[in-house]
């Protein structure tokens, strides 16, 4: 039996990291998986990975996934936060999400989904996989200080990537084969790109996030981790199509090589 057929018969899990606009590469990975006949039964995501994971679990077509991110306004003056921490009021995005997830429940999805969010008050991560869907999605993607924390079940939650940017834990023992898509890339950097405090802070944060999650990423059966994503800014909406193309091309090559 050829390797591709063996893999397609296994129970596949998909882990999607955080990483802002670079997360559009996840959509490219899903497109490549579809073309190779691979279906993930369980998905786990953090931050933008939670959003892409939810769209995938909802059987949203690839082009509609991209449309979701292109049409969701990142900065709107009437979304500015008043009386809340964060520049933008995350709750204002709820109506936009309802057009894609009208059932607003994990149970209404076609695949099992886990998302992770950070409890800011208790300093704990929370894996959510049942009940209300939209609030946990907003919480998981609420990157400080851009987006305000989300009040969920009486506590304030923010970006899942703060404590767990690669949430392998909920699915590791539930599947036979894990595909990991990591877009929080750390590659070698020239010292000319470390000349100011902002660049230094970004580099240090990136290294810390990668160090915390490195062993989990390496433990996946197949890892898609395109290094060229590092040149796309986390909040650079112009990079949406580019990141998607990079993810698709990299995943196609990786899958072709693995299944050869």
TrEMBL record:
Gene3D superfamilies named in the record: Cytosolic phospholipase A2 catalytic domain
An example Gene Ontology molecular-function term: hydrolase activity
Residues spanned by motif GXGXXG: 18-23
UniProtKB keywords: Hydrolase, Lipid degradation, Lipid metabolism
Short motif DGA/G, span: 159-161
GO biological process, one term: lipid catabolic process
Domain of life: Bacteria
Protein name: Phospholipase
Organism: Maribacter cobaltidurans
Species lineage: Bacteria, Pseudomonadati, Bacteroidota, Flavobacteriia, Flavobacteriales
